[in-house]
């Protein structure tokens, strides 16, 4: 089921994982083994969560890698629903 206007997963990482722990972006990037630029791009919604990042987030903050990927998939599907016109697509089933 698709959530109504889900937040970008980077927003979830920032608001539920980083800010409550009082961590800096640099500290988290170092801990995840990624560049500050990569993490900032995720947190600012320019990048999505890749399978590799999902594994890193799972180890660092908990939750399964699958749950991180599901958040990304829900966000991506919601975005696609907003801009994709399927009215002229022929149904075969």
UniProtKB/TrEMBL annotation:
Taxonomy, superkingdom: Bacteria
Entries under Gene3D superfamilies matching the protein: lambda repressor-like DNA-binding domains
RNA-binding is among the record's keywords: no
CDD domains (UniProt xref): HTH_XRE (cd00093)
GO molecular function: DNA binding
PROSITE patterns: HTH_CROC1
Pfam families: HTH_3 (PF01381)
Keyword annotations: DNA-binding
UniProt key word DNA-binding: yes
Residue span, HTH cro/C1-type domain: 13-68
PANTHER family documented for this protein: ANTITOXIN HIGA-1 (PTHR36924)
NCBIfam families according to UniProt: antidote_HigA
Protein name: HigA family addiction module antidote protein
Species assigned in the record: Candidatus Desulfatibia vada
